[in-house]
From TrEMBL:
Matches recorded under SMART domains: GGDEF, HAMP
Annotated ranges, domain GGDEF: 296-429
Protein name stated in the entry: Diguanylate cyclase
Domain of life assignment: Bacteria
InterPro entries: CHASE8 (IPR033417), DGC-Regulatory_Protein (IPR052163), GGDEF_dom (IPR000160), HAMP_dom (IPR003660), Nucleotide_cyclase (IPR029787), Rev_trsase/Diguanyl_cyclase (IPR043128)
UniProt KW keywords: Membrane, Transmembrane, Transmembrane helix
Domain HAMP: 193-246
TM spans (from-to): 26-46, 162-185
Length: 432
């Protein structure tokens, strides 16, 4: 029994690479969306903080220039504004009279854009007003002296520093994201290659078997997960194909050697006298057609002898042949007259049960057949440890086609083997 253990290089469009690409795309989109949301939230929060700072500065400056406005000291007001202009990002600071006339101002450059706010006269009731756009913010603050409105202060600041800081922060974040995606890519390749290794090996084994027609190979089972169960079913399929292939070769050899004699006995097993596989195949097709035509219930038993190989190895093939003949006689004695008992080859038998009133009849017959085979069998003074394991499938309940019904009974037989032998199982009993 061979197994695939050598590392195989992944093909150009392997499952590992496709999953890695899909995971990286999902990760990149998630990180990009998170970055955009965080950057937007950061910009809004930073702008609100700068706007709040500008409002506090405007209030303090308004308190400072109120006496100068009352005493019409323009020179002092101008000095105060120039001292205040050391504040970063400041575009314009302006002191106006209540009637809107400019009393004093400082401006960083010509052509600064203006934001639309309420008329200065309304500030007596509303207090400080502010607004912000993408590129600048503006604050209007009332100038009061003893609760009397004596003027209005206008403060305008640029958001260029905020944008620069956000740009630098975004550059750092994007660089980190790229590094994280690179690390994730390497990690995903390693993790997925390890996780998908059993599936890749199973695919390579199927390709190798398809090319070499060597059904003796088996898949390596690493874990009892979905892929592990798939590997077990694949191995069971290979085993059955190997058995059927061996039976076919044996049958072809027997046909060549038997010649004309085989033509006369084409439908009979020469050892047990039972109908053989060829006869069984024709009868199964015929009874299935009648089952469908008349709406009747029929069953198929796949019977495999237990410990037959042990008998052959310990007592020889002659004793093994006597055991097969005795088993055939015992089973033929318990079946109904219209049932069709066949020997498929080796220690495998099949029983067609047509025109069943219900499923219970077939199940009871399976128990009687197992008991008949298991009864003490003495050949040449030695007790033969022979038993029978039965797979039972019904048409049309489990399958309506010959191959499918045979496969269903075969799988049921393997389920009975796993259950401890010398028993029978239905197809649904073998579901993992």
């Amino acid at each position: 029994m061979n197994s695939v253990t050598a590392a195989v290089l992944p093909p150009a469009d392997s499952l590992v690479r496709r999953l890695t690409r899909l995971n990286l795309r999902l990760l990149s989109m998630t990180m990009l969306l998170t970055f955009l949301l965080l950057a937007t939230a950061t910009w809004y929060v930073a702008r609100e903080r700068q706007l709040h700072s500008a409002e506090l500065s405007a209030r303090l400056l308004a308190n400072s220039v109120s006496p100068m406005l009352v005493f019409a000291d323009r020179a002092a007001a101008q000095i105060e504004l120039e001292a205040f202009s050391r504040r970063s990002d400041l575009l314009l600071v302006q002191v106006r009279m209540p009637d809107g006339a400019v009393f004093a101002q400082w401006q960083s450059g010509p052509g600064t854009s203006q934001l639309q706010l309420a008329a200065p006269a309304a500030l007596a009731q509303t207090g400080v007003q502010s607004a912000a756009s993408w590129s600048a913010l503006e604050v209007w603050a009332p100038i009061r002296l003893k609760d009397e409105l004596v003027g209005v202060l206008l403060l305008r600041e640029s958001l260029a520093s905020l944008h620069l800081s956000l740009l630098l922060l975004s550059g750092v974040a994007i660089t980190l994201m790229a590094l994280m995606i690179l690390v994730a890519w390497r990690g995903l390749v390693l993790v997925q290659r390890k996780a998908l290794r059993p599936l890749v090996e199973l695919s390579d084994l199927a390709e190798q078997i398809a090319q070499q027609r060597d059904y003796s190979q088996r898949a390596t089972i690493y874990r009892r997960d979905e892929v592990g169960r798939l590997g077990e079913r694949f191995n069971e399929m290979l085993k059955r194909i190997e058995i059927w292939q061996a039976d076919l070769r044996l049958q072809l050899a027997q046909e060549h050697e038997a010649g004309q004699k085989f033509e006369r006995l084409a439908h009979k097993d020469s050892l047990t006298g039972l109908p053989n596989r060829l006869f069984f195949q024709g009868e199964l097709q015929r009874h299935l057609a009648l089952c469908v035509e008349h709406g009747e219930l029929m069953a198929l038993m796949f019977i495999d002898l237990d410990n037959f190989k042990k008998v052959n190895d310990q007592y020889g093939h002659d004793v093994g042949d006597e055991v097969l003949c005795e088993v055939a006689r015992r089973m033929a004695a318990v079946v109904r007259s219209r049932d069709v008992l066949c020997r498929l080859g080796g220690d495998e038998f099949a029983l067609i049960l047509p025109q069943l009133p219900d499923e219970t009849v077939a199940e009871q017959l399976a128990l009687r057949l197992i008991a008949a085979v298991r009864a003490t069998m003495t050949i040449g003074g030695a007790v033969m440890p022979i038993g029978a394991t039965v797979g039972l499938a019904f048409a049309p309940l489990d399958a309506g086609e010959a191959t499918a019904l045979l496969n269903a009974s075969d799988h049921a037989m393997y389920a009975a083997k796993r259950a401890g032998k010398n028993t029978f199982r239905r197809p649904q009993d073998g579901v993992a």
